[in-house]
């Protein structure tokens, strides 16, 4: 019969037994040392995916320089290959957060399609996370604390020890005479989590011995509640995810009217769900920006600035523009070989469909006051035509225009509802795709 900790671990990991590989995030500390030892021992009697350990070296303190060698010796003794990854931690207001971001970026580079990253965080970590986020005024999603599993790169991140206490892990380590690293920074109360761990939790558990277990259980309840909110958001977004009138425009967008039919709370819930893969979400005080955008006059074209981009309203639709999407070169470009597609710097690709017009062609951008000949309608003001088409204002400045000398021959046919030529050719534009911030 397997020991309790091994049996619980094997049961937790059962759904991922057919993964191509299991990577263990191995800091060398107590938690990851126990996890690595448990899995290495289970691999002797169970058919498990290929095991490997990953040590991320942040280089933030001199003591850490010796840790890769310690981790290598532990892995060598257990017969588990180790990958050491050195990262640069960006300077910022929160060193903890910057180190975490660098660490998870490294993990993302390791985990392949369908593979699993295993992290040794435990029940005490979960309780600390809940209390820390509660003190920061987090919502339900934040108070759900650390999920047992989530997507990571093309695979999965798992925390299989999340229902085990630190005391259980230490008892296992002592029973098996394991050695581990004690990070000196873990004793520094200037870090918020350390303050909670060393100053707050001892007082809580003195009065309420089950405080850690109860807080961790509360996090599970909140995680379930967040799951229900996600289901509600999915239902509400189905009505708003109507096809865009400009399917060629590679930007996420929603119809506004279905959102406005919801209560304010449901609007915020749906938008949080929609925006979460696109940007860091605003805190409660900044949701006034959504109300201003939503309630603006129809022709106002307002925007709401967020951490990683802007939310624009154009008519009865909202559009997400990731940071940098609007940056492009508006310099004129000569089209020497119009029979071939033309790459526009930072602005996608332009191509002529049909017979190529004669003469020297050039691509320019709007300056204002442009006039274009429209078959059957005569000479028309380009601005008025764009207004008729409903093309969002944030696109108009980067709309490529085809000139022959000083004559405006065409605007891309996809941008409007009018015909652009009687001569059997059309100008087609495929705008720049910006991977950052696209679903």
Describe the structure.
The chain has 439 residues and is of the alpha+beta class. It folds into 3 domains: 4-210, Rossmann fold (3-Layer(aba) Sandwich), CATH 3.40.50.620; 241-322, Uridine Diphospho-n-acetylenolpyruvylglucosamine Reductase, domain 3 (2-Layer Sandwich); 333-430, no CATH class. Helices cover 37% and strands 19% of the residues. The protein has helices at 4-12, 30-45, 67-78, 95-110, 123-135, 140-143, 166-175, 192-207, 211-240, 256-260, 264-275, 288-295, 382-389, 393-396, and strands at 21-25, 50-57, 82-86, 116-118, 149-152, 155-158, 253-255, 303-306, 309-314, 317-322, 333-335, 342-343, 349-354, 361-364, 371-374, 378-381, 401-404, 407-410, 425-430. A 6-stranded mixed sheet has the order 3-2-1-4-6-5, sandwiched between helices. α5 crosses α8. The protein is elongated, with a radius of gyration of 28 Å.
Proportion of beta-strand residues: 15-25%
What is the CATH architecture annotation of the largest domain?
3-Layer(aba) Sandwich
The neighbouring-strand order within the major sheet is 3-2-1-4-6-5
Enumerate how many helices there are, as a single number.
Answer: 14
Give the integer mean of the pLDDT values: 89
SS class: alpha+beta
CATH superfamily membership of the largest domain, which one?
Answer: HUPs
In terms of per-residue confidence, which ranges show pLDDT below 50 for 5 or more consecutive residues?
A: 435-439
What is the CATH C-level name of the largest domain? Alpha Beta
Largest sheet: 6 strands, mixed
From the spread of the alpha carbons, the general shape counts as elongated
Total count of strands: 19
Helical fraction equals 25-40%
CATH level-3 fold name of the largest domain: Rossmann fold
Radius of gyration: 28 Å
N- and C-termini, Cα separation = 47 Å
Number of domains: 3
Protein name: tRNA(Ile)-lysidine synthase
Family: Belongs to the tRNA(Ile)-lysidine synthase family.
Enzyme class: ligase
Catalytic activity: cytidine(34) in tRNA(Ile2) + L-lysine + ATP = lysidine(34) in tRNA(Ile2) + AMP + diphosphate + H(+)
């Amino acid at each position: 019969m397997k020991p309790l900790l091994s049996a619980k671990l094997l049961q937790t990991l059962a759904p991922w037994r057919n993964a191509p590989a299991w990577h263990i995030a191995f800091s060398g500390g107590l938690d990851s040392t126990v996890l690595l030892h448990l899995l290495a021992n289970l691999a002797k009697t169970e058919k498990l995916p290929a095991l490997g350990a990953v040590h991320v070296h942040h280089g933030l303190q001199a003591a850490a320089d010796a840790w890769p060698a310690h981790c290598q010796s532990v892995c060598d003794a257990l017969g588990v290959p180790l990958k050491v990854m050195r990262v640069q931690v960006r300077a910022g207001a929160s060193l903890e957060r910057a180190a975490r971001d660098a660490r998870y970026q490294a993990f993302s580079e390791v985990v392949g399609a369908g593979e699993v990253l295993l992290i040794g965080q435990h029940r005490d970590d979960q309780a600390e996370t809940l209390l820390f986020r509660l003190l920061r005024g987090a919502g339900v999603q934040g108070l759900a604390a650390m999920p047992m599993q989530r997507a990571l790169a093309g695979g999965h991140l798992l925390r299989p020890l999340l229902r085990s206490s630190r005391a259980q892990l230490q008892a296992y380590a002592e029973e098996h005479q394991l050695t581990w690293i004690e990070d000196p920074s873990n004793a520094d109360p200037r870090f918020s989590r350390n303050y909670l761990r060393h100053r707050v939790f001892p007082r809580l558990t003195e009065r309420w011995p089950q405080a850690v277990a109860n807080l961790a259980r509360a996090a599970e309840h909140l995680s379930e509640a967040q799951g229900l909110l996600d289901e509600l958001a999915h239902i509400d977004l189905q009505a708003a995810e109507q096809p865009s009138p400009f399917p060629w425009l590679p930007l996420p967008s929603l119809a506004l009217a279905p959102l406005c039919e919801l209560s304010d709370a449901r609007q915020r819930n749906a938008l949080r769900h929609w925006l979460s893969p696109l940007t860091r979400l605003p805190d409660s005080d900044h949701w006034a920006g959504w109300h201003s955008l939503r309630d603006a006059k129809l022709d106002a074209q307002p925007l709401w600035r967020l951490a990683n981009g802007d939310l624009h309203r154009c008519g009865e639709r909202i559009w997400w523009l990731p940071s940098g999407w609007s940056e492009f070169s508006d310099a004129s470009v000569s089209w020497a070989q119009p029979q071939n597609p033309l790459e526009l710097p930072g602005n996608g690709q332009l191509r002529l469909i049909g017979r190529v017009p004669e003469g020297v062609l050039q691509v320019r951008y709007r300056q204002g006051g442009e006039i274009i000949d429209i078959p059957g309608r005569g000479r028309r003001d380009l601005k008025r035509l764009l207004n008729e088409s409903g093309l969002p204002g944030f696109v108009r400045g980067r709309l490529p225009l085809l000139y022959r000398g000083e004559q405006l021959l065409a605007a891309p046919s996809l941008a409007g509802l009018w015909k652009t030529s009687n001569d059997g050719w059309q100008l087609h534009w495929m705008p720049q795709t910006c991977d950052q911030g696209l679903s």
